[in-house]
């Protein structure tokens, strides 16, 4: 295999893992808030969270580029903080991937939290558990299937992204060139053999992910 | 030792407005039809109904006083709550469920020991099972033990038997009676089932449309003539008594503060506490004891009040047999013939006495 391809695979795995972990951490309180009623802003926030599902990735990438760029508000902020500019860096890819995969993590978590209902938490409260205590001792264990689904979907979706990373990351080998980009390059330069290796691998990977998700769900239901 | 609870809550189509002063010991039943606010009242006491405003004091401790901005969240109220559906944690074994609350109570406040609670509710064989592998009755018992192990100062039970079929209820009721007899913890028991109330309660609060219609000791409240409180088929009273002797005719004599009664021998030994129910329609009035009658039981009683009944032909007579209230349903013709009036001494002849627990 091409050394650049190995770099691309490694980079993709690193990106998807970090994005998923960060999304699980950031998405949990958000999903919890949405599942528990969410207040007046709920509809607005829910729509924003779902937006990446419907927008063409290039639109998302374009606006992220503008926002994070030297003239954008977030770009000014990262510069003022001494972090430099995020576009065309690995950190920029992570930020973009988090936005792109947000609904795939938040929605399963929100559904899992909603399915638990209020009763177990009321029972926990009558057994002297503070809300935080009850979250860790009751909600998290009961929502475990939701977390597994969220992690698998978040990871797989991040692995498969193209448009957003192209806009925000460019296509810099070893730095921001992920798998989907490497395949695109191979096809552009008519290196179909190399493209096959990577594309076939992605196909197999995606199939296995969905298969394991289905088996996992059936196992839970049985 | 008492519980003072005043709550107001308004929802579309329902308003709760109660001001209850309840004894700090024994079982108090919150009784009423569905939609009368029983469960809402219980949830307000537990702090689970944030919309319920008012004041709550439990044996000298103020748990809520909205006028002063005091609101202890549920987890800081020393209460036990048994939910109608048991609400066991599905991810924990029975042992894990029992430990959940106990571990969160400071060691010096743990008065109920696990071995005692497990024994009391007969769940020793279930400890390693998951809730999904328990029957409805077993779940209820585990939920009760779990609540007890937090050593609550107040035990709230929301129809713990409602989800069970008749045989399962009969299986649980003795455990509830043991809770009542062996624990010092006051219990608030929500129920719409007359037989449970008659068997378990010492004190009765009748709720209707979010308001308390009546509240007081069980015997007195049931004997009130101004409200038709029917526990089961008819109006009647419930009396706590003790088995005094048993005879060769398969009868047992039970004693209570107002005298004694012969009942069918249920096999309990002398000294055993029983509860008997006397329905108003089974009580007739006479000037003499009536040795010639087939009715075994007659008690000397004093007329406290006479009131109209639902049918114009009959009247309800409230009597005191010693310290025990009785009610009798008799025809108005008999009231006139006997000259029944307040303060009169009479004999209450009792046709039937049911032992209910």
The residue ranges of chain A in which pLDDT falls below 50 over 5 or more consecutive positions are: none
What overall geometry of chain B do the principal axes of the alpha carbons give? globular
Low-pLDDT parts of chain B are none
How many individual β-strands of chain A?
0
Number of continuous helical runs of chain B: 8
Most extensive interface? A-B, 18 and 25 residues
Which CATH first-tier class of chain A would you pick? Mainly Alpha
Q: Which range does the strand content of chain B fall in?
A: 35-45%
Chart the SSEs and their pairings.
The complex is a heterodimer of chains A (222) and B (357).
Chain A: H1 3-35, H2 42-54, H3 57-68, H4 73-80, H5 90-116, H6 119-126, H7 131-142, H8 144-159, H9 163-169, H10 179-188, H11 192-221
Chain B: E1 2-11, E2 14-23, E3 27-31, H1 38-46, E4 53-58, E5 61-65, E6 70-71, E7 79-82, H2 94-103, H3 114-121, H4 136-148, E8 154-158, H5 166-182, E9 187-191, H6 194-200, E10 203-208, E11 211-217, H7 218-222, E12 236-246, E13 251-256, E14 259-264, E15 273-279, E16 283-286, E17 297-308, E18 314-321, E19 324-331, H8 332-338, E20 345-350, E21 354-355
Parallel strand pairs in B: 3-9, 3-10, 7-8, 8-9
Antiparallel strand pairs in B: 1-2, 1-4, 4-5, 5-6, 10-11, 12-13, 12-15, 13-14, 15-21, 16-20, 17-18, 17-20, 18-19
Task: Outline the structure in words.
The complex is a heterodimer of chains A (222) and B (357). Chain A is mainly alpha-helical and 222 residues long. Chain A has a single domain, classed as MetI-like (MetI-like fold). Helices cover 79% and strands 0% of the residues of chain A. Chain A is built from eleven helices and no strands. In chain A, helix 2 packs across helix 5 and helix 8 runs antiparallel to helix 11. Chain A starts with a helix and ends with a helix. Chain B has 357 residues and is an alpha+beta fold. Chain B starts with a strand and ends with a strand. In chain B, a hairpin with a 2-residue loop joins strand 13 and strand 14. Chain B is built from eight helices and 21 strands. Chain B folds into two domains: 221 residues, Rossmann fold, CATH 3.40.50.300; 120 residues, RNA polymerase II/Efflux pump adaptor protein, barrel-sandwich hybrid domain (OB fold (Dihydrolipoamide Acetyltransferase, E2P)), CATH 2.40.50.100. Chain B is globular and about 65 Å long. Helices cover 21% and strands 38% of the residues of chain B. A six-stranded mixed beta sheet of chain B has the order 7-8-9-3-10-11, sandwiched between helices. Chain B has a five-stranded antiparallel beta sheet with strand order 2-1-4-5-6, covered by helices on one side. A five-stranded antiparallel beta sheet of chain B has the order 14-13-12-15-21. Classes of the chains: A mainly alpha (222), B alpha+beta (357).
